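Please decode residue identities from the backbone states below.
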């Protein structure tokens, strides 16, 4: 997954939808569907019925967000940024911030 723009554990900012301009940590990336789950963002409420060992009530959980609706957040720029790629001397491929050139993989 060297080419992935967004990875698990990244700090991202949502750029569209109801949670626009909120940021959070990526919990899960679905590369097949190009969707990510971001901690505490894009929450949806599920009503559950009591029974089968559950109490029932309202369960809140994160719904996935399309990759095109999130941008990686650069701590140095303090804003969401575009991601670039760079090949290091040891041939490993790393992600860099296109604004400040800071390495995003540490
Ligand atoms: Zn930056």
């Amino acid at each position: 997954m060297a080419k992935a723009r967004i990875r698990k554990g990244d700090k991202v900012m949502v750029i569209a939808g109801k949670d626009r301009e909120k940021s959070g940590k990526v919990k899960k990336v679905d590369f097949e569907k190009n969707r990510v789950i971001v901690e505490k963002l894009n929450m949806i409420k599920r009503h559950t019925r009591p029974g089968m060992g559950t109490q029932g009530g309202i369960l809140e959980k994160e719904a996935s967000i399309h990759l095109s609706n999130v941008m990686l957040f650069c701590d140095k720029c303090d804003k969401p940024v575009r991601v670039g790629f760079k090949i290091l001397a040891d041939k490993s491929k790393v992600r860099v911030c296109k604004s400040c050139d800071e390495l995003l993989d540490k």
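Observation: Strands lie at 11-14, 23-30, 35-38, 43-48, 57-62, 65-66, 70-74, 79-81, 83-87, 93-97.
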